[in-house]
């Protein structure tokens, strides 16, 4: 297979789902929603180096749980739980490749600010809408996705960091549009950032080289 054929096919199927496939019937739409993730998982296996490490399997597992989240997000708490587990596996995998430079450590500051500001907007919205039962799981999700983004930055891997940032943007737009207020062209933005983020995380598998957790001043 030509090196760019599969990424181009992933892009094509993603755009097909986002802009062409109708929302109904539901199962038809869901089938096309899952096709890009299935292809991204296949692409991820192609990125695995010959000398596979536990970090590679952790990221692959995260991709699988993300696909489960896609398939079950219409049952919100089930889908949220699947994505939570995906981020747990991503986070553990990225931390295994963490390099603690001053710049990497400082990156946690804007991420913490983001998490706090977003939670301060989201929690009151959940209270006002009588969705108090979601406060704990949604807060936990904000924490794990923020930690995942920081862990990706700590790897120093541009694909992992960029993909994780896109994933955070996707989930932020989704949560804002669901619980706080409408976001212009939210649906295409959510999926563009989501598929793009997952693709970049899968791409990072080839370049996540062996490093030791250490502090580099």
Provide structural commentary:
It is a single chain. The chain has 217 residues and is an all-alpha fold. It has one domain (5-216). It has helices spanning 5-19, 26-47, 54-72, 76-95, 102-106, 108-128, 135-155, 158-179, 186-203, and strands spanning 99-101, 214-216. The protein has a two-stranded parallel ribbon. Helix 8 (158-179) packs antiparallel against helix 9 (186-203). The model is unreliable at 211-217 (pLDDT under 50).
List keywords for this structure.
globular; 3% strand; 2 strands; two-stranded parallel ribbon; single chain; disordered C terminus; mainly alpha; 217 residues
Number of helices: 9
Radius of gyration: 17 Å
Which range best describes the helical content: under 10%, 10-25%, 25-40%, 40-55%, 55-70% or over 70%? over 70%
Query: What is the 3D shape?
Result: globular
Task: Going across the biggest sheet, name each strand in turn.
Answer: 1-2
Task: Give a count of the beta strands, DSSP E runs of length 2 or more.
Answer: 2
Q: Which structural class matches the secondary elements?
A: mainly alpha
Largest sheet, in brief, is: 2 strands, parallel
How many discrete domains?
1
Instruction: Give the distance, in angstroms, between the N- and C-terminal Cα atoms.
Output: 43 Å
Mean pLDDT: 91
Quick structural overview:
This protein is mostly helical. 75% of the residues lie in helices and 3% in strands.
Topology:
Elements: H1 5-19, H2 26-47, H3 54-72, H4 76-95, E1 99-101, H5 102-106, H6 108-128, H7 135-155, H8 158-179, H9 186-203, E2 214-216
Parallel strand pairs: 1-2
